[in-house]
Amino acid sequence: MVDATTDTKASAVLDSAHIGDIEGAFGTLPLDHPPSVGLKARLVTLFAIVGPGLIVMVGDNDAGAFGTYTQAGQMYGTSLLWVLLLLVPVLYVNQEMVLRLGVVTGVGHARLILERFGRFWGAFSVIDLFILNALTIVTEFIGISLGLHYLGLPKIPGVLLSAVAVVAAASTGSFRRFEQVCMALVAGSFLLVPIYWIVHPPAGQMVRDFLIPRLPRGADLSKVVLLIIAVIGTTVAPWQLFFQQSYIIDKRITPRFIAYEKADLWIGIVIVIVGAAAIIAFTAATFSGHPEFGTFTDAEGVAQGLGKYVSKLAGILFALALIDASIIGAAAVGLSTSYALSDVLGLKHSLHRKVTDAKGFYLAFAGLLVVSAVIVLIPGSPLGLLTVGVQVLAGVLLPSATVFLLFLCNDREVLGPWVNGLALNLFTSMVIGILVVLSLILTAGVLFPDLGANAVLAILGGGAVLMAAVGVMFLIARRRHPPLPVVRQLPGRGTWRMPPLTLLATPKLSLARTIGLTVLRAYLLLAMLLVVVRVVQLALGH
Prior knowledge:
The chain is built from 22 helices and 2 strands. By secondary structure, the chain is mainly alpha-helical.
């Protein structure tokens, strides 16, 4: 075995617990594990590696996702399934970049932002993440409470027991044990499969709506666009970036296993997209032709509809799936916050450590979950407004998170031969542009509930023109100042890792990037302030 302290000093890894054998839910790989040869050996390696991609993707199909997908199905049938298909490349590109950052650097996302962009942006990213994640965890416990209510179980002990169970699973000092619990929750997500078969929605219609983009006939364009944005916001969320990078590091995955981790990510993406499609489809089929179609309330209302129009079993399975999804979502979102805070504050942060050896890490995790659970149990809490606030803030902050991700993946000091290529940069830049435009529409839609179709089209059109102009400017600048070529075929690329942070050259922001970050900073502060003011006004009845 390699001495952990020595290895930590020779690399950028900040916690010695992040170096050692890979201890996954389905197997262990020694630090000096030889290359896998043959199908059986590769499958054994894959089973040991699998976990980060599965957990981050299944955790993304959480309580908020259940609410958004069922709303899409009950309001508009399966006509918006095509949105899920368009999100597949966005999901993969975003998570592949953080995956690469994790295995190559050994340093968490929040710490990299702090070191490469300064204290302000490091603090800004963590504070934003903390607020958004805290509200997201509240929505997870709302989902748990809705599921418990449908099942006829007491809300207060059920919610508190769920919070305690999640904290207990993460606090054993065994990474493997926590991941085994998460894998059991991942298996619980397959409760959606029997519901799909019981309801049996028309497969032909689903295929058509997957492949042929269209908007629901006769629907209010502004409301449809806002729901599409909500689907995007609940499927691609900022916490995913921070969680997967830190969890990969905590699992001790290095560049030699990057292909297996990409396979893990693809498995997770397939599960999340299939699950989302199933929820939309069986909700649409359940309410089609009934008075409740087009009058969505919440996820519990969907469970009641399944019990009323399909079978009691279908309603029970849906409630159990909602509780399962909310628990794994709370665990993943809570960990992403605890990892990020510990990254920035320089605290020990590993599930391999016992509570007594990483008090700050576990205290942040437990405190966030317990406080969120208590908020849900407070009589009169504006739970519906909190859910709206989470969706809006996620939509506002996602472009910012993706911008930092793109910058980090083009930082040669950080990724060396693993930096992005031109095609990936162009695609990610286009995604960022679209996300900015959609976040503007989402923010405007919450601030101005009567936002009309013409206003939505005007924002979309203006955004498209601006994106085209920026693209032309980028291509002109790249032709005048071509970047240095990236040598990707280095003999040691498979084992290349970022040097210690103290040895990296100080990054120099170009004038264009400085202006861009300043504008982004101003937009984020203004948009967040306006959203918070609007939500408070609604809570006070104005």
